[in-house]
Every structure is written in structure tokens, then in C-alpha cells.
Amino acid sequence: MENREVARILRETSKLLEIDGAIIGRYRSYDRAADLISSLTEPIAELARDLKKITALPGIGVRMAEHIREILEAGDLSQRKELLQKYPVEILGLLALPSLGPKKACLLWEAFQASTVAQVEQLAREGKLRDLPGFGKKTEENILKSIEVFKKSAGRFLLDFAEREAAKLIEYISAFDVTASLAAPAALPARGKLIQSISVAGSLRRHRETVGDLDLLLTLTPREAGGVRDAEEIAALARHILAYGPIEQVLAQGENKVSFRLVHGLQVDVRLLQPENFGAALIYFTGSKEHNVALRGRALKMGYTLNEYQLATVADAAPGEDAARVAGAAEEEVYAKLGLDFIPPELRENCGEIEAAAQHTLPHLIELRDLRGDLQMHTTATDGKHSIEAMAAAARALGYEYIAITDHSKALAFANGMDEARTLEQARNIRSANERDPDIHLLAGIEVDVLKDGRLDLPDDVLAELDIVVVSVHSFMGLEHGAMTERMLAAIENPYTQIIGHPTGRLLLRRDAFAYDMERILDAARQHGVAMECNAAPDRLDLKDVYLRMAKDRGVRVVISTDAHSTRGLELMRYGVHMARRGWIEKKDVLNALPLPEMLATLRPRPGAAVRPRPGNA
Ligand code: DGT
Ligand code: CA
Ligand code: CA
Ligand code: ZN
């Protein structure tokens, strides 16, 4: 039995134990064992023969070793089988709903024998869940909402997760040594490096906010003699790829493609290409599909055909005939022959990028290195992990000129939000830290809550003492469209509001955006000089691309901030930059791409600001 099978059975047992109410330590040990087995390079079946060897593995005790042996011998775990007498296997799928923990899943099964998302949805619609112990009407509503999100997001993954998985896989594939992997290498001349390049394509390359599956493209170095690589080498490479530890199931295996699913459910397609087709293939598999369709239409009008191998002339294009080939090895070449400037992957959504590329009017998209500061972050004063000084040091290491420390206000009680006195004290602390650190400017800021009626959570005289005011909604997120629009308008009209933080409040794959009239909000932001944040946290990415473009078209300024709650959080800025690029945002649209004095001068002027000296600007 393969390691991945053993790991899968352990993981399922863990989940079933959790539903059955086992204590945390008990089921966690199954998960830890599964993770460990997935990461082993040697077969667990070998190790398990020797009790000493297997219990020497970190986190594997004698009991777990016995479980592993049982799986290897019997093909299953009796414990898992017993639990599956009690609960149907589908119940595991219910745990994918963020509003349903194992306890509630268990209750649903016991009360209604409900084990599928569809059954739970039905029960919730009929109002039958609210009376269960620990449920209530609110829980019932939340379950229905999370089922909606689940249906839309099923099988999709956050961008940062997909990126990490891709990086690990690429590192693993790159390490392949063809000479060592083939039999009788001594009899053969050294084969040299087999893999020429590994590239990410698909939605991950376009930096969509979530990713359905990973698309990887691989090219091989040509043989010295100029001949093609032999089948033996390619088969060895395929074997290597499919031996990747975290693979849970192999889905397809062909001459030029392998597909598999990783343990966390992410599917991967790896395609093998000839270098001369690389550019055409990269365009094709980067997509989007809509971009490809439009590009092919343009090619046809110009007398070409475009496919995943090449751009070729239509006239006398006999299959395989070289004369018909116009381009194919590099993306730039294909776009150029189509009369187009190179189109950055983030723009390839058929939203006007082809027309702009033809007229040489593509935007000069913002880049990470354009940013000079980060204007939203938290410290130990509220729910952040690190001190003002630690955040400043980390920001300095990233090369920033300035940052704003923006902790929460009192309405966010669970995050230890600050009242009037603590806000002023924190501002003093920020300013004194600023004086001690000449290499970076620290702005004394706040992320002040918008109350239900649109008023801000701190009085004017306190806000007037701060250098920068970010305004965010963290409560009453379910207000209906009209009320939410009025609330946001009121917040924007407050003369102290300068930036709207994570403006739609969405949590990717978990919570939908607030309902409000975005056009009216953006018009008001423009009118009052309020900037809109593009929150870079990978589970927010808020504003999203479409709204960023709407903001830009209206002349609303954008701020890209990490909303970091730790020093590491500051490193996630690039996700916000990619989202901004997808929204056609340029350096000139972004406030925190400006040097400090210009940035402060471009922020909405606050009441009385003209007579107050600018902080840190001497
Ligand atoms: P995803 O995986 O749902 O996040 O989104 P993509 O864009 O990565 O889509 P995927 O993985 O199905 O396919 C990768 C690319 O391959 C896609 O962006 C465009 C191209 N492609 C796939 N199927 C078709 C097709 O039927 N027609 C065309 N023109 N292109 C396709
Ligand atoms: Ca994909
Ligand atoms: Ca794919
Ligand atoms: Zn916030």
C-alpha cells in the first residue's frame, strides 16, 4: 500500500473521531501521523516492518505504529470501519462548511440523519435547525449563507495556498536527476540536465483571487545531438513526478500530461512541451479562456491560426509544414505577430486588454517595488502579534519609507479595541518610536470602526490628534442594501475619514461582500477625496479587481495595504499588488507609491490640518 493511501485512511479516521467527539489530542495525532507519512520519501510499508524504526519517527508512538501496521496488513483501520457504522462517509463532506464544526455535524446526524450539504440546506430552509441545542435562528441563517458561498467556491483555493503548493511541487520536480534515475547509468553517457523550464500557467499565473487547479508547463532540454529525448527518459520523469509525497490520487497519465490530486484536494495538471511550442502553449494554458477565444478571433482575421502549438498562416498550412509557422517559441513573439504589445497575465480576461494592446495604450501596471509604505497594520495594542518597534523594523527591512500603525477602536471589543484614552496613548507611543527610529517614518493612525448608523467609533477631537484615519466596517455586516449604502455614505462624509479599509468586508471562500451600491460609494469617495483600500491579505483581496477598475475610472485614489497582524503579514503585499494590476491600476493611482510628503498632501485634508504642522515631515 502506498504512503498516500495510508495517510488518507488516517485523515478520515481523524475527522470521524472529531465528529464522534474524541478529545483533541486523540484525533490530532492521526492528522500529524498522516502529514508525516505523506512527507516521507521511503515507503511506510518498509519502515513499518521494524517497530523500532517506525516509532523513531517524530510523533509516532507505539499505538499509532500499531494502527499503521493494521492499515498496511488489513487495508483499513477497524476503528474507521466502526465509526463508519455509526456515521455515513458523506458526513466528512459537511465539515467543509465553515459554519458547521464536527459537534454540529454530529447533532445534525443524530437529530435528522442528515449527512449531505443538500439535506442540511433543505432542513435550514424549512426552519428545522433553529431548535437544535446550540443552534438558534442566527446559526440557521449562517448555515444557509455558508452553503451559498460553499456552492460558489466548492473546489477553489486561496491564491497564497495554491502558490505555496506550486512552489513546493516545482522544487521537487526540479530536483529530478535523470542520470541517477535510469538503470545502468554507467553504460550511458551522462545525460545532462533533462528539465529546461517549469512554468506556472492558468489562473495562478493570472493571479485570480482563487484558483481551481494548478497548471504547470514543463520543457525539456534538447539532446546534444539535436535529437529528441527518448521515451525512457520521459517515463522516468513521469515516475518521479508521480512519486511526489503529497499526491493523494493520480487522475490521468498520458504521453505529454499527468494529472493528480494533492492531499488537500488541489488538482494539478503537468504538461510536457517542446521548446519551440512553449510560447503558444504558455498563452493557451495561461488563458483566460475568454482571452484565448478573442485572440484566436483576431488571428483568423489576420489570416492566421493560433493554437496551443503555434501561430501559423492559414494559406497552404499543411500539417507539420514549417513554412506555415509564424511564431510559437515565445509569448512576446506571438503577441507581436498579432500586432499586439505584450499583455501582462493579470490583464488576460478579455476586458479590453486586446484592443488596448493593439493601440499601444495598455496601462503601466503598478509593481511591488513602486510602493513606499504600508498604511494598515496592527500591533499588540489590539490584536496584532508584534510591537510598534518590531513592525517598524520589519517594514524598514522591506525597504519602506513610511508605515501607518492602525490599531482597532473600542467597538471591536474582542480584538481589544482602543478607547479614547488608549488611542491617544498609542499615538504618543508611535510618535516616540518614530523619533527613536530615523530610518522610517511611523504615522500615528487608527482603523476606526463604522458603527451601525454610519458614525465613527471615536469622537472628532481624538481623530484630530492622529496622522491618518482608516475607517472600516466590522459589525452588522448583514445590513440590507439600502441601509448599508447609507451607512457607508455617512462614513465617507465624516470629515476625518481618509481611507476606507477592506471596503466590502468579503472573506474569500467564506463570506460574501457587503451589499451596497458601489457606484454611489465610489462617487462619494471621489467627491470627498477618500481613498479606497485594496487589502492585500490573501483571504480578503478587497477591493477586488472589477471595483478597483471602477475606482480608477472615477479618479478615486487607491491604497494597497497589508492589514498585517504580525511582522510576517507585512510580506503579503504582493497579493494586493497583483489584485491592483488585475484592476488596471498604475503607479499614479496609488497613494502609497508616493513619497511621504506627497502622500500626506494627497490624502484627504482633515479639518484644521492646514494649520497643524505635518508630522515627521521636517
Ligand atoms: P481555474 O483553474 O478554474 O482557476 O481557471 P484556469 O483559467 O486556470 O482554467 P483551467 O485550469 O481550466 O485551464 C487553464 C487554461 O487553459 C485556461 O485559462 C485557458 C485554457 N483552456 C482550457 N480549456 C480551454 C478551452 O476549452 N478553450 C480554450 N480556448 N482555452 C482553454
Ligand atoms: Ca487552472
Ligand atoms: Ca487546469
Ligand atoms: Zn479591519
In short:
This protein has 618 residues and is of the alpha/beta class.
Q: Would you mind describing this structure in some detail?
A:
By secondary structure, the protein is α/β, with parallel strands linked by helices. It has 4 domains: 3-86, Orthogonal Bundle (DNA polymerase, domain 1), CATH 1.10.150; 157-273, Beta Polymerase, domain 2; 280-358, DNA polymerase, thumb domain (Beta Polymerase, domain 3, 2-Layer Sandwich); 373-602, TIM Barrel, CATH 3.20.20. 42% of the residues lie in helices and 13% in strands. Helix 21 (460-463) links the parallel strand 13 and strand 14. The radius of gyration is 28 Å and the shape is globular. The model is unreliable at 185-189 (pLDDT under 50). Residues 202-203, 212-213, 215 line the site of one calcium ion (CA).
Topology (SSEs and partners):
Elements: H1 3-19, H2 24-39, H3 44-47, H4 51-55, H5 62-74, H6 78-86, H7 91-94, H8 102-112, H9 117-125, H10 136-153, E1 157-158, H11 159-174, H12 178-181, E2 195-200, H13 202-206, E3 210-211, E4 213-220, H14 231-242, E5 247-253, E6 257-262, E7 267-273, H15 278-286, H16 289-301, E8 304-306, E9 311-313, E10 325-327, H17 331-337, H18 353-358, E11 373-374, H19 388-397, E12 402-408, H20 420-436, E13 441-449, H21 460-463, E14 468-472, H22 481-493, E15 499-500, H23 518-528, E16 531-535, H24 545-553, E17 558-561, H25 573-582, H26 596-602
Parallel strand pairs: 4-7, 11-12, 12-13, 13-14, 14-15, 15-16, 16-17
Antiparallel strand pairs: 1-3, 2-4, 5-6, 6-7, 8-9, 9-10
The structure holds 2'-deoxyguanosine-5'-triphosphate, calcium ion (2 copies) and zinc ion.
